[in-house]
Amino acid sequence: MGALSCVENRTGGVLLVESKSHVPEIFGNGCGAEAASSIKKIEQAIAATKQWLHVGQQADWKGPLYQSANRIAHLYFFTEILRIEAWLVNVYFTG
Questions:
Q1: Short-list 35, 21, 19, CA closest to 68
Q2: What is the 3-state secondary structure (H, E, C) of the chain?
Q3: Residue 3: left (phi > 0), alpha (psi -120 to 50), or beta?
Q4: Which pTM does this prediction carry?
Q5: Which domain holds residue 50?
Q6: 78 phi and psi, to 5 degrees?
Q7: Quick check: 65 pLDDT over 90?
Q8: How many domains does the chain have?
Q9: What is the pLDDT of residues 5-62, one digit of tens each?
């Protein structure tokens, strides 16, 4: 489950929250985009995010962990492109 919220403080911002209650939920079917234009946009966003994080471009972010990569790319988008303070919180329930 994911959530997006506006933060009301001195400067404002965006809070991204992702929560999981079962380990299998962490893994998905990967990127489901089919249109070439969509795939190109996704690949560009992922490449920019990897560069921002100093991650090797060869790492496949469109596979089973795409959902996590997508959240990180959103964090990059808010903080670096829109210049809005943003936070990503991952909540994992156990037991």
A1: 19
A2: CEEEEEECCCCCEEEEEEEECCHHHHCCCCCCCCCHHHHHHHHHHHHHHHHHHCCCCCCCCCCCCHHHHHHHHHHHHHHHHCCCCEEEEEEECCC
A3: beta
A4: 0.84
A5: 2-92
A6: -65, -45
A7: yes
A8: 1
A9: 566 666 778 889 888 888 888 899 999 999 999 999 999 999 999 999 999 999 899 9
